[in-house]
Amino acid sequence: MSRVRRISRTRIIVLFWTAATLLAALEAVLVANWLVGKTSPRIYSSVEDIPAREIGMVLGTPEFSGGRPSPVLAGRLQAAAELYHAGKVKTLVVSGASRPEQFYDEISAMTRGLIALGVPEDAIVGDGKGLRTLDSILRMRDVFGYDDFISVSQRDHLERALYLSDHHGISTIGFESGIQPPGLYPDEWLGSAIRAPLSNVKAILDIAVNRRAKYPTER
Predict the structure, then answer these.
(1) For 94, what's the count of Cα atoms within 13 Å in the CB-facing half-sphere?
(2) Which of 31, 74, 132, 152 has its CA 20 to 30 A from that of 96?
(3) Closest Cα partner for 91 from 129, 56, 126?
(4) Burial of 50 (0-12, 13-18, 19+ CB in 10 A)
(5) Measured CA angle at 146 (ends 212, 115), to 5 deg
(6) Average pLDDT, the chain
(7) Do the beta carbons of residue 157 and residue 133 sit within 8 Å?
């Protein structure tokens, strides 16, 4: 009987700490989403409404299909091209990971995609060391000298980018992109819905530990 009681007590303790851990994790996600989501009013979805800036930054993504931009990235490129053709920006910085030795190059794919949408090559600047959102934001200021620009991505990503920018004293507004072609890739939305809340928590932690760009000065 005493052994049964010990097992029961152990199970109760394990269940208690499991529940407490899950509750703390949920609270962290909710708080992070609330903090990050406060930047939403500075995100525009209409090219007519967004204020003009000299520079736009297109945030990259590792999701590719068949060597071409994924539907998520294609949406960002389409939005960036709209900004350029509407005269809202004069230069577009494409920021992402470029590892040609590993046959992986977001920058080349993004550049080709923008050129195909009518953006001239001399209006495109590549940053192949924008490994994460934080890196892209900090490198815009510290490497390229831009501290007032339009960021282009999907809304949940932009909320995080603007939150990080605010913390580091960088002025940016967001232009919301969709997914191209729209409505055909529910898995893209599902992946974003799962990934975004956790990424928001990571953004809060990055600020808490004062994380910097991996390549703070290199072009």
Answers:
(1) 32
(2) 31
(3) 56
(4) buried
(5) 105
(6) 84
(7) yes
